Each structure stands twice: as C-alpha cells, then as structure tokens.
C-alpha cells in the first residue's frame, strides 16, 4: 500500500470516527434530536451502532455500542498502518491504542465544545441557528455538574474554570497512559 493511499483511507476512517464520537456525545448529553445537524450526523454514522445496540443496551445515557464502534474503527485505522508497514502487528497494543485514542478524542471534542459554548455565550447567546443551539446545549451539559457544585456567585459563573481544569487533568492522565503504552502520536486521531 502506498503512503498516499494509506493516508487517504486513514483520513476517511478518522472522519468517520469523529462522527461516531459526536453521536456518542449527543446521546451522553441528551441533545435535541430534532436539530437538523444532529439528525444528519446520526443518519450518516449510526448504522453500525444500531446493530450492536440491539445486543448491548445503553446504560443510563452511556451508549457503549457507539463507543465500541469508534474503537473498532480506530483499530482498523491502526491495522492500515500495519499493512502500510509503519508499525508491527500486535492486536493487544492496537486495541489499547484504539481505546486511548477514542477517549482522548472525546476529551478534545469536549474541550472545543466548552470553549465554543463560552465564546458563543458572550457574542451570540440569543441566536437560533441550529449549530449554535447544539453547541450551547452540549456545553451546558458539560458545565451542569460543575454548576451544581459551584453555583454562580453574584451573577458570575466560574464553573467553566473548574470544568476546564478537570478536563485538562483527565486529558493529561490519558495522554500519559497512551504514551506509556507506546502509542505513536502521529498515528492517533486524538493528537
């Protein structure tokens, strides 16, 4: 397999993984499924998860079927690197790397959701565009547990600061785990 073909297929698998991770986060944060952006992404990437979901039901709002699909897609991307000769084949390492890659991707997407939610709340909080409503809804879902612990003080909401600290801590923990397992950074979608 040529290097250009490898990168093309790896990019396509990575894009599909991002869609599956967004589908997982939509279910986790219980977003409005009538939003056209949510419907489009779910329609595009939910077919493999539907099959697994018939065996593996979601627990609370955690959809393990979607996570398994994302891990399998990343495993296929790592296997492409084996076929291209970039890494050696070790199924255990590839599975662990895929798990770390998906977890770190979820954390990175959550970071950008939080950052986007904060910026949008400053400049266009009353806009009714579906993308803005989706971004605000997902960011508020991330901030909700922190707002429960730290209520607004005099109209100032400092819960996002603690959400960023917690997210950064989790990201550094999983990044160090991934590094210790020998995962090549250039191969993971999350780096």
Explain what this protein looks like in three dimensions.
The chain contains seven helices and no strands. α1 runs antiparallel to α4 and α4 packs across α5 (91-123). It has 191 residues and is mainly alpha-helical.
Set out the fold topology.
Blueprint: H1 3-29, H2 36-45, H3 47-53, H4 64-84, H5 91-123, H6 130-149, H7 159-180
Helix pairs in contact: 1-2, 1-4, 1-5, 3-4, 4-5, 5-6, 5-7, 6-7
Brief overview:
By secondary structure, this protein is an all-alpha fold. 73% of the residues lie in helices and 0% in strands.
Biggest sheet: strands, sense, closure?
A: none
User: What is the element string, with H for helices and E for strands?
Assistant: HHHHHHH
Write down how many β-strands occur, each being a DSSP E stretch of 2 or more residues: 0
Number of individual domains:
1
Mean pLDDT: 89
Amino- and carboxy-terminal Cα gap: 24 Å
Shape: globular
Model regions low in confidence, pLDDT < 50 over at least 5 residues: none
Instruction: Indicate the radius of gyration in whole angstroms.
Output: 18 Å
Q: Figure out the total of helices.
A: 7
The assigned structural class equals mainly alpha
Share of residues in strands: under 5%
The percentage helix is over 70%
Question: What distinguishing features does this structure have?
Answer:
single chain, 0% strand, 191 residues, mainly alpha
């Amino acid at each position: 397999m040529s290097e250009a073909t490898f990168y093309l297929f790896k990019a396509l698998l990575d894009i599909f993984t991002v869609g599956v991770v967004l589908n997982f986060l939509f279910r986790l944060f219980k977003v409005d499924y009538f939003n056209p952006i949510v419907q489009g992404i779910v329609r595009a990437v939910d077919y493999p998860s539907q099959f697994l979901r018939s065996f593996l039901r979601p627990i609370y709002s955690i959809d393990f079927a979607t996570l398994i699909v994302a891990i399998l897609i990343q495993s296929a991307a790592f296997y492409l690197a084996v076929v291209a000769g970039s890494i050696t084949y070790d199924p255990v390492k590839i599975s662990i790397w895929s798990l770390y890659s998906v977890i770190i991707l979820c954390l990175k997407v959550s970071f950008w959701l939080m950052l986007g939610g904060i910026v949008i709340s400053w400049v266009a909080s009353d806009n009714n565009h579906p993308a803005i409503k989706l971004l605000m809804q997902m960011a508020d879902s991330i901030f909700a547990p922190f707002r429960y612990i730290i209520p607004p003080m005099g109209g100032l909401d400092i819960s996002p600061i603690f959400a960023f600290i917690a997210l950064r801590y989790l990201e550094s923990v999983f990044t160090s785990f991934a590094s210790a397992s020998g995962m090549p950074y250039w191969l993971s979608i999350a780096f």
